[in-house]
Design a protein that fits this description.
single chain; alpha/beta; five-stranded mixed sheet; 9 helices; elongated; disordered N terminus
Length: 250
Amino acid sequence: MESTHNNTQIYGIRAIIEAIGADKPIDKVFIQKGLNGDLFKELETLIRKEGINSSYVPIEKLNRLTRGNHQGVVANISPIRFHTLENLVENVTAVKETPLFLLLDQLSDVRNFGAIIRTAECTGVDGIIIQKKGAAPVTADTIKTSAGAAFKVPIAKVDHIKDAVYYLQASGVKIIAATEKTENSVYDISFKEASAIIMGSEDVGISPSILKAADYKAKLPMLGEIGSLNVSVACGVFLYEAVRQRGIKE
């Protein structure tokens, strides 16, 4: 095992099997293309069973990730432990009538992620929900950019954001999508009820199927020539509009 500037890595097939068995918060496993053998098949089966994010890569990629004898596999361990969606929603709704959740659809930049977590903590967000595959990992850079807020705001991972949307709706939470593809302003939407805000990826925004599933769509007024804001800035505007409407004071 070794520690990098981003997170903690473990390498070697047996070591990663043991880590999964010990319930370590593994963020992603990188696997050498063409790897085989009984022990590797055991690891591969375990990864599928536990739903762990994995990627098959050339050996050169693994050699860049670590200087150790990786045996064809390298795993990144997250510095935080993730929640399940069910536990997060149940725990929050049990104590709050009007919770506020944040869903991030394929956000990929770790610093944007960290900035969003920091703003979420400052605005009283009860939980952040991300997708297992394709989302920005929680690394040391994320923790630093969040100013430590990543240790304070519960974060849940799901297979698909759309599944989280449906689960939240069934739990009495309305879904508000932040998108330019609407005529509705963020200032026309009520955040006073139990709500979840969806923010999209930096390049393509919220995926069409998730937009379709949302209860409301809202955009920010853009008065300049540039057509969009950085996603972490836009997220901050949405969250503070929720704070303003709810009349929450320090």
